[in-house]
Design goal:
The protein contains two helices and four strands. By secondary structure, the protein is of the alpha+beta class. The chain has a single domain, classed as Alpha-Beta Plaits (2-Layer Sandwich). Strand 2 and strand 3 form a beta hairpin. It starts with a strand and ends with a helix. This is Ferredoxin. Keywords: 4Fe-4S, Electron transport, Iron, Iron-sulfur, Metal-binding, Repeat, Transport.
Amino acid sequence: MALLITKKCINCDMCEPECPNQAISMGDEIYVIDPWLCTECVGHYDTPTCMSVCPIDNTIVTDPAQQENREQLWEKFVLIHHAV
């Protein structure tokens, strides 16, 4: 699954520079995560870095609209970082 930033976001700027896939950017009001680039840090880290640096609990959650298993996230990582 890709991750989703909820309306609890306080725009603290902690998550955006931590994303190894550059999937996080400023939206109209809060930061947003591009589901096509989010691999939940699979291929980079054991846990999503955006979630670990966010100072507000439950602000970054799994996106129910983007159901992906670990294998699918790995395939996405390979496509993003090893495209020929």
